Amino acid sequence: MSRGALEIAAAVRAGVLSARAAVETSFARIADGNRRWNAVTRVLETRALDLARAVDAAVARGRDPGPLAGVPFGVKDLFDLEGEVTTAGSMVLAADPPARRDAALVARLVAAGAIPVATTNMDEFAYGFATDNAHYGVTRNPHDPARLAGGSSGGSAAGVAAGFFPLGLGSDTNGSIRVPASLCGVWGLRATQGRLPVAGSYPFVTSFDVVGPFGATLGDLRAAFEALDGAALAPVAASGLRVARLGGWFMDSMSRDMADAMEALAAHLGVSAIVELPEVARARAAAFVISASEGGALHRDRLNDRAMAYDPAVRDRLLAGALLPASLIFRAHRLRGWFRRQMHAAFAGVDILLAPAVPCAAPRIDAPLIEIGGEQVSARANLGLFTQPLTLAGFPVLSLPMRVPGLPLGAQLVARPGREDQLFALAARLEADGMTALPRENADVA
């Protein structure tokens, strides 16, 4: 089993492990496993080794290189990396000039001593839940190579699950961190919208876009978030947190395995209260409309000139979004404001809400369908069934890997805006109680 971020950083800062060795181990794991998983699109060897030398030199001089000293991390290929072309998973941008500076989140991790080692695969322009990319191929799930890793940040999640690196950066517009974290059995965080800077990340839906980390362990995820946020989280007593389940929409359309896992999680916490949000189906529809319209508007001019260069599945959705009438878009935004108020009201007597992160375990790549309401529907569009409605409100959500037999399943912990401290406190209790999966538990990796 590979080392976690906290273990690597402690060893590097103590001088018992070099940052160069940590980076070279990451390269070796990528070289050994990426043909199987297709999580990585580029290895950043020159830059990573230069940064590793700087970290090791700081340690040799008795200077602290940062809380994440020498920790390798993967970067979803919609974040700018100085000197690299940001493709956002598309050949459409492959001839663009290299980025002049790092994206804000990349820069913050580097300032904390972490080292970017690779760019990771994604759905083209972050439009999908599968990481099935017409240009770069499909990312396979490290727990079963016949299955999807989820998306759109699937390369980062799969890279963490495969042990390529203990941390990854992703983006979450409608569930693009939460879905692959759940399917790959790792930890993920969609922070409060606006808390972490999106500067230097290629946009998809400006109204919804959130950027954030994946971690092999909860401790790794917390350390990454604190480095990204610029401050340590305040301690919170998990025993004082009031927890309820989201009902209605969030209790339907689950596989039997997911329903059993959610019942076990609720029973362990002694949760009997159920909170039902109104008009969740309409909220999800509004998220679809806003996503399609903003994505279509962003790409309209380029679609006029180079439509055939796009992934066909993405191109068709963007073209449809560009044609949506203004009246429908206006109604979707108005519903968004109303639904956000309903979310605030739902927390009147509750601190944390529990919900499934996905309807089921990872679908097979050769049959990318899931069952919703008794019908087989596209996984690429519908794996975000439980994440997408929550997008409208912009609340923080932590995706945790539940301790289940077989393929991974994840749960969402939802808190009020700005209360990531409560999410980590409850997650830490569940981890201590053995209710969460161990790093790479049951993963099909060496």
UniProtKB/TrEMBL annotation:
In alphabetical order, the GO MF annotations are: catalytic activity
Q: Where are the transmembrane segments?
A: none
Q: Which Pfam families match?
A: Amidase
Superkingdom per UniProt: Bacteria
Q: Which residue ranges does the record assign to the Amidase domain?
A: 22-423
Task: Enumerate the InterPro entries for this protein.
Answer: Amidase, Amidase_dom, AS_sf, Carboxybiuret_hydro_AtzE
Listed name of the protein: Amidase
Q: Which organism is it from?
A: Acidomonas methanolica NBRC 104435
